[in-house]
Amino acid sequence: MSFWQRLEEPAHVVVCGASRGIGLALTEQLLARADVARVYAVARHATQAQGLQAVVAVHGPRLQCLDVDVCDEQALSALAAHLRAVIPRVHLLLCTVGVLQDGASRAEKGLAQLNLDGLLATFQRNSFAPILLLKHLLPLLRGQHPCTVAALSARVGSIGDNRLGGWYSYRASKAALNQLLHTASIELSRLNPNSCVLSLHPGTTDTDLSKPFQANVPAEKLFTPHYSAECLLAQVERHGPAQTGTFWGWDGQPIPW
After folding, report:
1. Lesser CB count within 10 Å: N end or C end of the chain?
2. 168-191 and 116-123 helices cross at what angle (nearest 10)?
């Protein structure tokens, strides 16, 4: 039985990182479903994002835009308090937040390029923000209702599949995210036996994150955000409590830790 078939009521969905790229595409596709009651689109400047405002024009109050800095735990706490006041539960929590090279974060090619500021910045966004988001929304996920939590990881975060090296902080932060999500899946399964926590690799997608590194990517391997979102939602749909704490590619293939 698919995720959508297991629902007993229209879904309340939270998409974090919803203002552009894969997050925006997920928001659009979810709102196209009649079995989604409302999508809460979370981003630093969600209420000012042109892409989201275009979606609001189509779907009206079924899309709620919330300005939240996911790297600020007080802001996450305030987000959770707001959501608890307006909905009884969350059925689907999607986190697309991530960074490869921006500000202090760097796609290091060798050890000599590593520095503490870069490591901390990358881990803060790729590892800490998603798990702290889950921490604060936990009261809305516990219970007996079907719920899925999925965050964007990356194949390069796989230790077993690492053959090329490089990208130290990005690889390590995604490996850390995988461990955090796997650990959280064990706790959440005790708090809600109908829960599922997934690490998902979206493939190389034409977004701001990948743009500096697209030169050697074959055209057929560079996905549009729309296509990546379709593939990710297919993984959400097909996996349930029996697969909680697992790591999957966009194509439905398991990825080694």
Report:
1. N
2. 30
Domain count, the chain: 1
Provide the terminal-to-terminal Cα distance of the chain, rounded to the nearest Å. Answer: 27
Domain presence at residue 254: no
Q: How far apart are CA 18 and CA 24, in angstroms?
A: 5
Q: What is the CATH number of the domain that holds 99?
A: 3.40.50.720
CA–CA gap between residue 193 and residue 241 (Å, rounded): 7
Residue 50 lies in a domain: yes
| Per-residue pLDDT tens digits for 84-111 | 999 999 999 999 999 998 999 999 999 9
Q: Is residue 257 part of a domain?
A: no
Sign, CA dihedral 210-211-212-218, equals positive
Residue 82: burial class (beta carbons within 10 Å; 0-12, 13-18, 19+): middle
Q: How far is CA 115 from CA 71, 109, 110, 154, in A?
A: 20, 12, 11, 22
188 lies in some domain: yes
CB 94 within 8 A of CB 13: yes
* Order of strands across the sheet that contains 92-95: 63-67, 36-43, 11-16, 92-95, 147-152, 195-201, 246-249
Angle at the Cα of 44 from the Cα atoms of 66 and 239, rounded to 5 degrees = 70
d(CA 155, CA 204): 10
Look at residue 197 and give its three-state secondary structure.
strand
pTM, two decimal places: 0.94
